[in-house]
Specification:
The protein is of the alpha/beta class. It contains 14 helices and 15 strands. Helix 5 crosses helix 11 and helix 12 packs parallel to helix 14. Bound molecules: pyridoxal-5'-phosphate. Pyridoxal-5'-phosphate binds next to helix 6.
């Protein structure tokens, strides 16, 4: 291949392709042995046998129906996805959130990353305003910014989004001539901070959304990973007006390589999402197999198993951080989800510590990837979930050694 042609080809990129930088790389660097960097589910727990049975049964029982653009659910399956899985999800979400939902309020998407981008594109464009959390999932920030909307942030504290700060930000957007339309949040086991928005803030957020006439995007992909107690009801449970649009995914609950997720909410909101899409929805074969996985009870059993196994990882991580890293890092034990959010002590040269940890084969995620502004460099996101249990404590011991070696007064002491 003539690689010299690359420049001539890229000169023909559309404006969108030129301006829209490639996604942040999240592959581990070479030499990483213990990877606390990525927020991935534990691959040793992927339900491979159950998935194989569901795929086999789908092909055996549904035959060519499973391999067409759409099946008995009609051509709208090309926009919304396979009806059977949407009906199953609608039933589950209606029960969990104690709020009615029918399949017209659910669309299947190719991973929640796809869903988040579609929601951004469904509601936002130049002249619109969006509010995100000052710390958030970087792809959401990127998708929202790429719409051309004006983006503002609200702070996140130990209880998640500082909801009281929202009205002023919305007013400021209006004063700048923008129409605020969307507030994006991860209220439960937040990425990257692990925080949980308490009930009074949830209620206040939904009320504010109604009052200010904006939609709320609830990224809910860690909701069922509560290790101590069940989390508070979802934002959707407080939503009587249809302002909440909820994004969720099989990535953390089953496997990210499925690229299967959903967006749920008021049928008009979901129709907006479907209008923004540029595909014929998701694989019908996969959606049918996952419907079987859900209906058989395997899905619920699997989540139970993950919760127990991940709770153990969380506990081992807490103990190891206390033993090896405190007081050079400060943290709150997360009540659920995948992430520890560590604040590195001021007397540690964190960039140096990171290099030392990397030289020992230990990777963590720098906090600055989640932040607009300069608060990030003193923070680290650490996920133990995909790390084999036996490697968690040794990995954190190496991190502790790197932190101690990078103390600014280390050379003198
Ligand atoms: C907060 C949050 N939202 C969305 C996603 C995307 O997941 P997926 O696209 O695999 O469903 C992730 C993945 O790490 C995440 O942490």
């Amino acid at each position: 291949m003539d690689l010299g042609a690359s420049e001539a080809i890229s000169a023909k990129y559309s404006t969108r392709a030129r301006l829209f930088a490639p996604p942040l790389g999240s592959a581990p660097a070479d030499g990483v042995r213990i990877n606390f960097d990525q927020g991935l589910p534990d691959p040793s727990l992927f339900p491979i046998d159950e998935l194989r049975r569901c795929l086999d049964a789908t092909l055996a029982e549904d035959g060519d129906e499973a391999l067409r653009y759409f099946g008995a659910g009609g051509p709208e399956e090309m926009q919304y996805g396979h009806l059977g899985l949407r009906a199953e999800l609608a039933r589950r979400l209606a029960e969990r959130d104690e709020r009615a939902l029918d399949p017209a309020g659910v669309t299947l998407v190719n991973g929640s990353t796809d869903g988040l981008a579609l929601v951004a594109n469904a509601f936002l464009g130049p002249g619109d305003g969006a509010v995100i959390e000052a710390l958030t999932y970087p792809h959401t920030r990127r998708f929202i910014a790429a719409t051309g909307a004006t983006v503002r942030t609200v702070p996140v504290d130990d209880d998640g989004m500082v909801v009281d700060a929202l009205p002023q930000v919305l007013d400021e957007l209006r004063a700048e001539g923008c129409t605020p339309k969307l507030v994006a949040t991860i209220p439960t086991f937040h990425a990257p901070t692990g925080t949980v928005l308490p009930v009074h803030r949830r209620r206040a957020l939904v009320d504010m959304a109604v009052e200010h006439d904006v939609m709320v995007l609830e990224d809910n992909c860690y909701y069922h990973f509560g290790y101590d107690t069940a989390p508070p009801p979802t934002l959707r449970s407080f939503d009587e007006q249809g302002v909440v649009i909820q994004s969720d995914s099989f990535s953390k609950y089953v496997a990210p390589g499925l690229r299967l997720a959903w967006v749920a909410g008021h049928p008009a909101a979901v129709e907006g999402v479907v209008r923004a899409r540029q595909d014929f929805s998701v694989s019908a074969l996969l959606a049918r197999a996952i419907e079987r996985f859900c209906r058989s009870g395997d899905f619920d059993r699997h989540i139970e198993l993950l919760r127990a196994r991940y709770r153990h990882k969380r506990d081992v991580t807490t103990a190891a951080l206390r033993e090896h890293c405190e007081p050079l890092v400060a943290f709150r034990e997360p009540a659920g989800g995948f992430y520890f959010w560590l604040r590195v002590a001021d007397d540690v040269d964190w960039l140096h510590a990171r290099e030392l940890a990397a030289a020992d084969g230990v990777a963590v995620r720098p906090g600055d990837q989640f932040v607009d502004g300069d608060a990030g460099p003193r923070f680290v996101r650490l996920s133990p979930i995909q790390v084999p249990d036996a490697e968690i404590e040794p990995g954190i011991a190496l991190l502790g050694r790197a932190l101690r070696a990078a103390r600014r007064d280390h050379a003198r002491s």
